[in-house]
Amino acid sequence: MEPGSDVFQWGRGPPLLSNPVLDQLPSYQSLRYRRRPSTGSSRRKRSVSRQRMGSSSSGRWAGPDTDDLLKTVSPQRPVKELPISMSDKRRVWEHHNEQRKDMSSWQQWWLGRQRSFRRFKDDSHEVFSALVLWRKDIHVIEGKFGTGIQSYFSFLRFLVVLNLVMFLMLFCFVTLPVIISDYEVANSTMLNVTASFNCSAYPSTLRQGLVLFHQYIIDALSGTGFLEQTYLFYGYYRMDSVHFPTIQYRLPLAYLLTSIACLLLSLVWTVKRSVHGFKLNLIQDEDRFQSFCNKIFAGWDFCITDERAARLKHSSLHYELKTDLDEERIKQKIAHRTRKEICRIYFLRIILNLFVIGVLGGCFYAIYRATIYSQEYGQTQPQQAQNFIVDLIVEYLPSIVITAANFITPLIFEVVIRYEDYSPAFEIRFTLIRCVFVRLASIVVLLFTLWSQITFCGGKTCFCGYNNNLYPCWETRVGQEMYKLAIFDFLIIGAVAVLVEFPRNLIVTHCSCSLAKWFGQQEFAVPQNVLEIVYGQTICWIGSFYSPLIPGISTIKYFIVFYIKKVSLMQNCRPSTRPFRASSSNFFFLAVLLIGLLVACVPVGVTIGHISSSKACGPFMNYNISWDVVPSAIETLPGSARKFFYVISSEAFAVTFFVVVCLFLFYFIALARAHKLVVKQLKDQLQMEGRDKMFLIQQLYKAQKTFKQQPAWPRTEGSELEQEGMLHPDRDYYSPPSSDVFPEDYMDYNLT
């Protein structure tokens, strides 16, 4: 027996069923330990050895069996899509040609049609991908600044497309029938006023007499005057039905269902896009070690082609690794805190959070008072006002206060968060959560203030269900507020780019003073820019019910904002030193957008199902609330259809549907738990295989060290050792097989 054969056994034949070294593998020892209570250990030992033998004989790095591949691959599948080598692809292609010779003419014709259709689909996909909006611009941004900033512009493109689809839906199903009726293309029936004269009075808001030019500007910016009685607002749609040759189109029902459909479309589309980002974000946040590996081995963005962007990406990776290490340090620090330190930190956090609540309360109270003052000023001042600047400021006073709150509060939050002793990553997330809350809650406070004024009748019960003296068409008034918020938000975005970022860039570029260097260029902070457009999109969703054309305004607005942000990024700004990865960015964007959508659904739902609709304007002037149009439409259906809707709206159906949904939910929860358990087992197996490899490498190193210490053997020409590769041609002593043979025989051991 050769020296060392008791440690390693090799040869041309298959390995033996038992091996002293392989029996010492950590995975094998762990398997024996877990199955020790059983009686059939020897049988399982032989089965594990057989698995080891089969695994070794097949080889880990051996390619797939081509004969089996020829049997399984369908002729319809393109050969270029197969994950095999070129030689195997040639064999598959030749096999397919042989199969086609045995086919009938009909089968060959059908196969040719499938191939032609597949080519047509691929060509169509290339054509449509070339027609994608801003495809080249976004690729340029991705090449210069990476995927983090590119994800912001892709998100902006998504909102442009979403608003365009919403606008087309509302225009086609709501506005277009009214236009057709106004131009007498089809007959129509107007709504008859059934309420009392006091509730149905709607005085004209058109300015009389000599109108100054600046007053038209005020009307255009605030939605009053000549714009109030147009297709832009809710009050203009006073039509009951449009009569076509074969059908009768009911406008109130179409108005309600289209508004709901727009919100449902936004929900489904947003959720569909957020699923992929949620999976990636869940995987990245699951394991800290995996996060380190991703940053070190897969953190570089190979889309970057600009040298400055490459330096910024290098510094951002350095910042991310430093932040992760700081988080680990803070976790260790938290674990070793004394009770006194914990009490001190929590007491400080309580004080700071009370201060934050006070700041938020002050902002919300300022919005409340500004809204009340703006409404009272518009009711008490005559239409022919003389001071243009004062009138414009008062009209936009709620928008100005909201914008000031959105600008000041993030600065306060950034200062406060430094003293709360959180980890760096949690500081960013917590600050963003506070900023999201401020922006969305400010809209809620504005709407709450408006509704408190609309439903207040001086301490008495409102005869019409709302204050018809001050708000004869209150839906139009809410639409005007949303219109002003949207316009002012667009003006602020443009003004910041032109009046702040551009002069700052000029000062930093052409001024060499220390103060200019300390300020530096404006950072293109992705989260703050996302909050801006989510705030505007929430306004669009709320306003789509009160102003059907506001999605079209938002489409134009975001179309222009894209080019403003692009020019500002290219010329005036630099990427933030706190970067956002593309996967986490997409999930964060869509999560905030979903929050904005839920906030928008609350006031629209309250308007539809709770507040009395205006009796002087709009498509629901003959209904108590907007939802009453649905039961009224169901009553006009045939008996079977009416019975179907009664069944699905009954309590029995609701309970049954709830139970079925719960069963599906429990099933998917159980399935997710099972998948999580399998993933955990696979991770444990990978870790065990890593330990096996380390053990085998150590044994190989010991064996080679032992052989080097043994006396050299005399060299024999043409000996069996040289033929077996165990005797080096340039050395006169015995050597074990090289390490490239060792893994093929022994390191292909897998647990099942």
Automatic annotation (TrEMBL):
Can you tell me where the transmembrane regions are? Answer: 158-180, 253-271, 346-368, 396-419, 431-451, 482-500, 587-611, 652-672
Q: Where is the composition biased (Basic residues)?
A: 32-49
Q: Which GO terms describe its molecular function?
A: mechanosensitive monoatomic ion channel activity
Please verify whether the record's keywords include Magnesium.
Answer: no
Compositionally biased residues, Low complexity = 50-60
GO annotation, cellular component aspect: plasma membrane
Similarity field: Belongs to the TMC family.
UniProt protein name: Transmembrane channel-like protein
Organism the protein comes from: Polypterus senegalus
Gene that produces this protein: Tmc7
